[in-house]
Design goal:
- One of its GO terms (molecular function) is phosphorelay sensor kinase activity.
- It comes from Carboxydothermus hydrogenoformans (strain ATCC BAA-161 / DSM 6008 / Z-2901).
- One of its GO terms (cellular component) is membrane.
- The protein is of the alpha+beta class.
- The chain folds into four domains: 24-251, 3-Layer(aba) Sandwich (D-Maltodextrin-Binding Protein, domain 2); 321-415, 2-Layer Sandwich (Beta-Lactamase), CATH 3.30.450; 417-497, Helix Hairpins, CATH 1.10.287; 504-656, Heat Shock Protein 90.
- Helix content is 46%, strand content 25%.
- The protein is built from 18 helices and 25 strands.
- Strands 1, 5, 6, 7, 8, 9, 10, 11 and 12 form a nine-stranded mixed beta sheet that branches. Strands 23-24-22-21-19-25 form a six-stranded mixed beta sheet, covered by helices on one side.
């Protein structure tokens, strides 16, 4: 394509673009921007005595044009004609337009530069009309095509009288031709001054509407012009020129003063109300708090008196408590020690409270490892802890009780020396009774081997020369004497006093010798004894275990009338070993089950009520527990739980 062709195309494009811009912005197509407005809307917009445009809006558009850098031509016409020129595109800017939803469909509005008010004017002697609602059934004057018509039209019970301008409407009001006039506040004040009606007509109520008031251009057109106008209005606001124009044309009107003072009065009343409310609330709150404080003080005093009474009662109880009580705080300072503690430990110094535990004689009676465990939150105890007090041996039962919430420790202890002696006496008494029961069977059992020995000794002279007979006699005599010796050893082992000491012991080693001792009684009553899993080891005192199982086995033998079974079996149960002693005897009546471990309780005619109580005591001292279950006519099962030791495998076997 030639350069000439390119220039032609470029020219066409430029022409089309220019046409589109001018079509969208008609004002740019004119040498001057045509501005139209109302010719009779003082002091906003009107023609003066020389027929020249004047008013606030005129001064404002001149200032805007200067700031925007545009040339303008101002034409003031009747309001309806001015609006039609803009809507027909014959003018570019409409002066002094109140914003309404209806007008927003016809015009694009600039930034508002004034808030226009539509108010009610009535005669000064009218005290009936105070608000818009009072206009019902009255004749009201209004300017034709005025913005007030947008909301008055919704009230058909108001009779409207139309006028060409607000001046005519106010004249008619002054001459009593209408009851009220609705119009622009600023225009109304202007004409009241001009017509000398200031003392005859007044403004009542609050503004019916407060609308944004600015410039308008035809909807969808002259957008570039609209931007320039907006920019200029913002500058006038920023520089203060707009406020100067308002002061020039409107000054400070009586209504503005009244509105200002009403506003101030409202603020003061609201402020006083808020202040009074807050003050009353504070007084109420203060009184409420005072009542709560008084109530809390009363409750605290009451609680203090109750605590003091409880403390006094606790002090008396502690002083009369037979157990020794010592309390230590988190730093091991002795906070409390009662008289029983001093008496049990033989301490004469009563001034131990407030001293450190480690610097008192108490440290010699309570082992440090247990005290340390209590401070770590573990409650622990010692049964029959041996101490020496004033040269005498005593046994103490001690509980170290942790109190984690205050990191304190309470030591509760008692002297069980006499209890231990009494228990040992009861155990020995019970053991003697048991030995007496065993002796009857033992005498019967020993007769058989002695009779055999006697018989062979009588035959020996007759067959002394027979080597085979002599050998047989020697073997038989040895076996029989071994049996007698075993019976005697088992009886002595059971009856002989031994030192109490916990150790790892296999159940088989404890129970088997007892079964040997009781074998004559098993045979006499045709009782079959079964053992199962007795290879488990427990941590306990073997002497005390022998006493417990002997007692349970004798009770089982007594319960079986004629022919029956006794089963002894063990199994793991968590960190314990569970041992069951079952019999097929007559059982225990249900009403006695909760009492059989009570000391001196017995359901037997010849019983003493000591055996099972001692069994429970011994099992508990070995860290275990004992339970009973029985069905009358079917049998009884005693279940024992003991701390686990080292297991040992032993074959199950049947005895008897």
């Amino acid at each position: 394509m030639s350069k000439k062709g390119v220039r032609v195309i470029f020219g066409i494009i430029l022409f089309i673009a220019s046409f589109l811009v001018l079509a969208a912005n008609p004002a740019l197509a004119r040498e001057k921007v045509i501005v139209v407005g109302d010719n009779d809307y003082p002091p906003l917009c009107y023609l003066d005595g020389n027929n020249n445009p004047a008013g606030f809006d005129v001064d404002l558009i001149v200032a805007v044009a200067r700031k925007a850098g545009i040339d303008i031509e101002i034409k003031l016409l009747p309001w309806a004609e001015a609006r039609k020129m803009v809507e027909d595109g014959k003018a570019d800017v409409l002066l002094g337009v109140n914003y309404t939803r209806t007008r927003a469909k016809l015009y694009d509005f600039t930034e508002a530069y004034l808030e226009n008010r539509q108010v009610i004017f009535v005669r000064s002697d009218n005290y009936v009309v105070k608000s818009f609602d009072d206009l019902r059934n009255l004749k009201v004057g209004v300017q034709r095509a005025d913005v007030a018509l947008d909301f008055i039209g919704d009230y058909p019970d108001i009779t409207l009288e139309y006028f060409e301008n607000q001046q005519q409407a106010l004249k008619a009001l002054g001459q009593n031709e209408v009851d009220a006039v609705i119009g622009n506040y600023y225009t109304g004040l202007y004409w009241l001054q001009k017509l000398n009606l200031e003392n005859k007509i007044k403004v009542v109520g609050i503004p019916l509407s407060i609308t944004r008031y600015g410039l308008g251009v035809k909807k969808g057109q002259n957008q570039e012009l609209l931007k320039k106008l907006n920019g200029a209005i913002v500058k006038l606001k920023t520089t203060g020129e707009l406020d100067s124009l308002k002061t020039k044309w409107f000054g400070e009107s009586p209504y503005e003063k009244r509105l200002y003072f009403n506003r101030i009065r409202t603020y003061v009343i609201v402020g006083i109300f808020i202040f009074t409310t807050i003050l009353l609330f504070i007084l109420w709150l203060n009184r409420l708090l005072q009542q709560k404080v008084e109530r809390a003080t009363y409750e605290l005093n009451l609680a203090y008196r109750e605590l003091a009474a409880q403390k006094d009662l606790m002090d008396k109880m502690l002083e009369h408590e037979l157990n020794g009580i010592i309390t230590l705080d988190e730093n091991r300072i002795i906070k409390r020690i009662n008289n029983s503690a001093l008496r049990i430990l033989g301490i004469t110094d009563k001034q131990l409270e407030g001293k450190h535990f480690s610097f008192t004689p108490l440290k010699d009676y309570f082992p440090e490892p247990f005290l340390e465990r209590a401070y770590r939150g573990q409650t622990c105890s010692l049964n029959e802890y041996r101490v020496v007090v004033e040269g005498q041996t005593k046994f103490l039962s001690i509980n170290f009780i942790s109190i984690p919430s205050i990191r304190a420790v309470l030591i509760n202890f008692r002297d069980v020396t006499e209890e231990k002696k009494s228990l040992e006496l009861m155990i020995n008494r019970d053991k003697l009774i048991t030995v007496g029961q065993l002796v009857a069977g033992f005498v019967h059992e020993i007769k058989n081997p002695l009779f055999t020995v006697k018989s062979y000794l009588e035959l020996l002279p007759l067959k002394a020369n027979d080597p085979a007979f002599r050998e047989e006699v020697i073997n038989i005599l040895k076996n029989e004497l071994d049996n007698v010796q075993k019976l005697i050893n088992d009886l002595l082992n059971y009856a002989r006093p031994q030192n109490s000491k916990k150790e790892i012991v296999v159940l088989e080693e404890v129970i088997a010798p007892l079964l040997n001792l009781l074998e004559p009684q098993f045979i006499a009553k045709q009782i079959t004894v079964f053992k199962e899993n007795l290879g488990f080891a427990v941590y306990a005192d073997p002497m005390q275990l022998r006493h417990v199982f002997m007692n349970l086995l004798l009770n089982a033998i007594d319960a079986i009338q004629d022919k029956g079974e006794i089963k002894i079996k063990a199994a793991e149960y968590g960190d314990k070993i569970k041992i069951e002693v079952q019999d097929t005897g007559i059982g225990i009546p249900p009403q006695y089950l909760n009492q059989i471990f009570n000391l001196f309780f017995t359901s037997k005619k010849d019983g003493n009520g000591i055996g099972l109580a001692i069994c429970q005591k011994l099992i508990q001292e070995n860290g275990g527990s004992i339970l009973v279950d029985s069905t009358p006519g079917a049998g009884t099962t005693f279940t024992i739980f003991l701390p686990k030791g080292v297991p040992l495998t032993v074959q199950d076997e049947k005895v008897g």
